[in-house]
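note to self: the first set is below, dont mix up w the second
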Amino acid sequence: MLLKKEYASLFEDVHTHVKESAEKMGSSGGALFIIHNDKIVTESYFGKQSNTKHAWDVQADTQFHIASVRKTYIGFAAAYAIYHGYFSMDDPIRRFVKDAHLSAYEGVTIRHLLTHTHGLKIADGKLVSEYKPGSSWAYRGPSIELLATIIKNTTGQSIADIVKEQVLNPAGFQSTEWIKMSQPHSKITDTIRDADNIFWTETDVADGSGMNMYVSAKELALWGYLHLKEGKWSERQIIPKEIIEMATSIQTPNPNLPIHKNGFLWFVKDTNNTFNQIGDKVPKGSYQLLGYTNVTLLVIPEENVVAVRMFNRYGSPEGYDYLSDVRSFGDTVYKCSIKASAM
């Protein structure tokens, strides 16, 4: 998609915010890409792809490890499968798993997996139930493995295959890849971690392939823009609108509970609360995902804006409030888009 570039100084505060965050976090480089009112208003690349002596500059085709932001692609694949009738949102997952006899699966549905309300966790090497499905919220790993398995077993395609066939190929994306860490190329950033940071592993469990997702700032923004435009690409409806609506609308089983609200793995803004990753000023109905590498994809439909920030650091330094940082990023994007719309 060829969007007109109309760089706007009114978004300079976002640029300043992102560069300051990169410095505080200890990222060697980063990127910022903003689309507003169907124009590219900010496109910025700074720093190096790693801390090594002869590291490449971060450029337009540099690809960053997007960590949990990959869940937007997993959510899309789930919506695709539901739309085409492979399973329904409220099907019990026992219908699709080999070890259906496990008591932890009692009452767990596809919807629970997609909204982090399943209650499943691993304890002492076993799958157990932490709470009654739908009664609370917790960010746990088993749901992603289960979703990937269910999608592949029912559709006959991996998540990567579905996304490639439905979006990457039709849209002509060139800088969105699942890559093995043992096979990097020159456009890939080296993701920095503290010596004692063993929390994050390099592999993506979503397809059991030992791969993870690396995406350029532009293509991650265009992925968000495809959602903003409800599946339209260059005035062509390449994805049914219903798939996007499912993925980006609140699907949490009991929306009255004081917990995070999710679409299909997207965080969707509802009310303000202390645990939101989306800023207080960002309007209801906006949706976002934040990765452990501090990559963020934010879509604000009310202001027709998509904003992507890319960093290459696992976690953040001790004492750094990453939640406050990402909320502030969203609020700054929203404030600047309001000003730009008023011009």
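second set (the one i keep forgetting abt)
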Amino acid sequence: MTFTQWFVFILILQVIHGAGTWKFYVAAGRKAWEAFVPLYNAVVLLKIVKRPTWWLLLFFIPIINLIVIPVVWVETLRSFGKKSTGDTALAVFTLGFYLYYVNYTQPLPYEADRSTHPATKTGETVSSILFAIVVATFVHTYFIQPFTIPTSSLEKSLLVGDFLFVSKFNYGARVPNTTVAAPMVHDTIPLLRKKSYLYDDENPSSWKQKLQFPYLRIPGFETVKNNDIVVFNWPADTVAQFFVKDRKYLKPVDKKSNYVKRCLGIPGDSLQIKEGIVYVNGNPLILPDRAKPQYSYTVVFDHKQFSDITPFLEENDVTDGGGIANGRWESDTLFINAMTDDVAKKLRTVTGIKKVERIIFKEASLSVFPYTKPWNIDNYGPIYIPKAGATVALDLKT
């Protein structure tokens, strides 16, 4: 929905709220009309249930509000003597409409001096868990989120299985687009292998899609720079075999798979790869010392002098390209998929090594983006990355 549609939707919710709670307000010594005034009704209700006014902010934070609003329903009932487990369950499982029943059919003795401290150990535990979930979700969504590196694309800088914390406030945290979702999980509920969010990937006009929040990003204090390592949602993610085998799922942008990559070009840059070397604006890309790019190599060696290259590969953490059988190499030529220049130089000094040559693809291919030019993975571009205000020609080739 657009911001205007959300505004109208919220006004409708205020009418629904007022119609189902105005007698609670009157019983607490307030006016009936106060239950219908947007924002003000929430401030008054928080005073009635003896909760701090700053909770009002939590009502407008996606995901967190899904936890806080049911808590306020329960607190409202308890402020008027409805403290049983059944009352609590009915408030939550009827999505608050149980308050309608109480509002119109039950006496409402207001307990102005009610203690907000949980009366039982169980209540205290539940209260502590809910508070922890709210705080963790807020930090997770807007400040820092933990990730585990799933693939080897940044090998030698970040390893598979590395655990890291990623700052969201540096570049400006994005407000979740998906307003109805489980807290602190991404696209899947652990163990259950079920969607963690409300979205209909088969029907774009579904009411579930209308609950998507417009794109909104909180201002940050940094912008992405060349060579920054960034985590982002993969735009084209459809994920085959996600929940059901052999089926693809279209997901909302904030639930698309998380990718971690190094940013080589930023808006306004001209990006090119020549002979396997990246160029930005015509200059070779200078990577930080920690970055150790890997290349593919052809290695020719003499079996008589160097019959087993495996120990060298293991010692230097090199990914071999196959060709081994029964513990020995089948030929004198080995293709290595990923090896740094430093390791290649070391390998050239080993006795029995005849040649270590980087593999550079020369042949044109239409299998790389944008699939219309005779480029390949080692000779690519130049391609211009548009910046705000720039004008670019759009045709079948660009």
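remember for set 2: The chain has three domains: 3-120, 143-263, 292-398.
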